[in-house]
Design goal:
Strand content: 15-25%
Strand order of the largest sheet: 1-3-2-4-5-6-7
Order of helices and strands: EEHEHEHEHHHEHEHH
GO molecular function: hydrolase activity
Number of domains: 1
Number of strands: 7
Protein name: Alpha/beta hydrolase
Keywords: Hydrolase
Organism: Streptomyces inusitatus
Number of helices: 9
Amino acid sequence: MTLTHDMTGDGPVAVLLHSTVCDRRMWDPQWRKLPAAGLRLVRCDFRGYGETPASDAPYSDADDVLRLLDALGVEQAALVGSSYGGRTALDIALRAPHRVTALALLCPGLPDQDESPELAAFDARETELFEADELEKAAELNARAWLGPEADTATTEAVRAMQLHAFRVQSAAAEEHDGAADFDVPSLAGLRTPALILSGAHDFPDFRACAIRTAELLPGAHHRELPWAGHLPSLERPAEITALLADFLTP
């Protein structure tokens, strides 16, 4: 399967990997601005999100992205990942470090992170609503939980709509498959890739801890916690995050 994707701009390639609360549309603000900084952008929908169908067999999101880059003739790229997209970016960098020029990770997750009571309570409520086929309520729960206090009504509605679409696609699938793959977290210390890691002060403690751990492990990492941000800072203050990414990704 080739992931549904878009390309725009000219110059060094940056691949935008979305959170599982959203799909590739979460990068709309950056999509309009980053090409002016001299970047060629690629964004894609993981399986079961946006316009990419759910999978009918086991798969790996990291392998899907690498195959997409092969199909596009892209040998090297910077990876920009939000939440699960950040975890997938790390997985790609471990599988093919020679292909990754930089990592920009926004509130990334790690496969071995213990779950906090706050996140466990959220997961339990989401599962309850999903299993009751209350998909609209589950999507609303996600939009409220993952956005920080500065998110406006339009942003909240956009996240709700993306999550609801994903829930509908995934609930209609004949069999559920998870594209996430575990990786050896301590092996991140062997990467020499420059990395910018952002976390949000209003995020779940799990992801704040993941950002700190990732920055400690990656030798070339710089971590910055954003005091105003929740879990999706690129949507909460898009202009500020776009400027940070442009500064990090361009010479």
